[in-house]
Amino acid sequence: MEQSSSLHQRHKTKSDKNENEKLTLSSQTPPNEFKLFKLIRLTAVLLWVCTFTVLVWIIMPLNLIVLDPLCKYFRVRSKNYSLEILSRFWAKSILFLLNIKIVIEGDQHLEICQEKATVMVYSHSSYLDPVILQAYSPIPSKFIFKRELLYILPVVFVLAALVGHIPINRKKKDAAIDSINDAAEVVSKYNKCVTISPEGTRSPDGNLQSFKKGAFHLALKSQSTISPVVFFGNHLLWPPTQLLPNSGTSYVRFLNPYRIPQDSTVDSLLDQTREVMLKSLESPPKNFQTFPSKPSAKHSFIFLIIMIPLLYNIFKFLHSYFIDPSLSLVYNNLISQNTTHF
Fold first, then answer.
1. CA 301 – CA 310 distance, rounded (Å)
2. Are 146 and 43 in contact (CB under 8 A)?
3. Within a 10 A sphere around the Cβ of 43, how many other Cβ atoms?
4. DSSP letter for each residue of 104-139
5. How confident is the model at residue 332 (pLDDT cuts 50, 70, 90)?
6. Number of continuous H segments (helices) and E segments (strands) in the chain
7. Given this model, what pLDDT does residue 236 score?
């Protein structure tokens, strides 16, 4: 079957109006911008991620021992758990610092997925995709990520695993299947939502790639509702080949979730979902501009002005009252031992 075109490709069977809309979107190019602006934004994001990660590690025992049990006792909705609120705040702050605005369509469709077993699948063309879903998905969800990231950036991704996100070893088929089965058990038993990119990795050109079967094995095994999501503009904001992201606007479209038919197979689910997502990508939002205004690094600049002196003073305080006395104690013990030995 000939592959359908996606957002950035011309589809000859569409009307001239749709053709023009697609060509307008695909021909958008980022405005000329000082690389210093991009560097300031990325520096602010990295500082925010590091600072926030340390804070979450600090409060993790309190959350596990006190906050989570209290939420379960009082039957608080999962989206209002402390870590879910913090996760949304973390992601929204990243987008704020990158000066990326979000336009949302169709989030009301996911009301039927609240507290139900759901597999959310999304088009993946940028680092921004999971961050945007973490920030603005109407239902709290856990992401599936590459197990290698646990070793590349353990401080962040070990924490991600502790809060419920699922690492998968994609290099070993048996291990990947076991992880999918474990995820399916969690989804069906606790009525959770798991979010996964069926493409497996970011699209190099912004077009929807072929799908892998893992997401649909997971959906079929857990008898979940499938919730497709597509993005417009993300590939232009932060392409896989670009180190520094652009500022602009991302458009998120939540499609109608659907229950799995009884006679479904993994292949039929895959084909059905891909067709729905391709069809949506062929109908871009009207009058949507990825770069509607001049780029800016104002948010990040203000953040750095506040945070750098603050962190410096915190470190200075810790060094004066904790690190220096500890080092002095170690030094004095060493001197004492050497003197006694002599």
1. 14
2. no
3. 17
4. EE-GGGGGGGTTS-EEEEE---STHHHHHHHHH-SS
5. low
6. 13, 7
7. 94
If phi > 0 it is left, if psi is from -120 to 50 it is alpha, else beta; for residue 33 that is beta
Q: Name the pLDDT band for 59 (thresholds 50, 70, 90).
A: very high
**DSSP annotation of 28:** -
| Segment 116-158, tens digit of pLDDT | 899 999 999 999 999 999 999 999 889 988 888 899 888 889 9
Q: Which DSSP symbol is given to 32?
A: P
Position 330 confidence tier, pLDDT thresholds 50, 70, 90: low
> What's the Cα-to-Cα distance from 55 to each of 52, 69, 106, 131, 308, rounded to whole Å?
5, 20, 34, 19, 16
pLDDT on residue 10: 31
Q: Do 303 and 97 form a contact (C-beta atoms < 8 A)?
A: yes
- Cβ-proximal residues to 336 (8 Å cutoff; 6+ apart), any chain: none
Q: Which amino acid is located at 96 in the chain?
A: F
* Interior/surface letters 139-174, b for 16+ CB within 10 angstroms, e for the rest: bbbbbbbebebbeeeeeebebbbeebbbbbebeeee
- Token pair for residue 307? 């945070």
Amino acid 272: pLDDT: 96
Rounded CA separation 99/28 (Å): 18
7 domain residue, yes or no: no
Identify the domain containing residue 176 by its residue range: 35-304
Report how many domains make up the chain: 1
The model's confidence at residue 23, banded by pLDDT at 50, 70 and 90, is: very low
Question: What average pLDDT does this structure show over 237-248?
Answer: 93
Distance CA 128, CA 237 (A): 8
Find the CATH number of the domain harbouring 148.
3.40.1130
| 154: its two tokens | 């353990």
Out of 1-10, 85-94, 227-236, 332-341, least confident range: 1-10
* Continuous segment of H or E residues that includes residue 330: helix 324-341
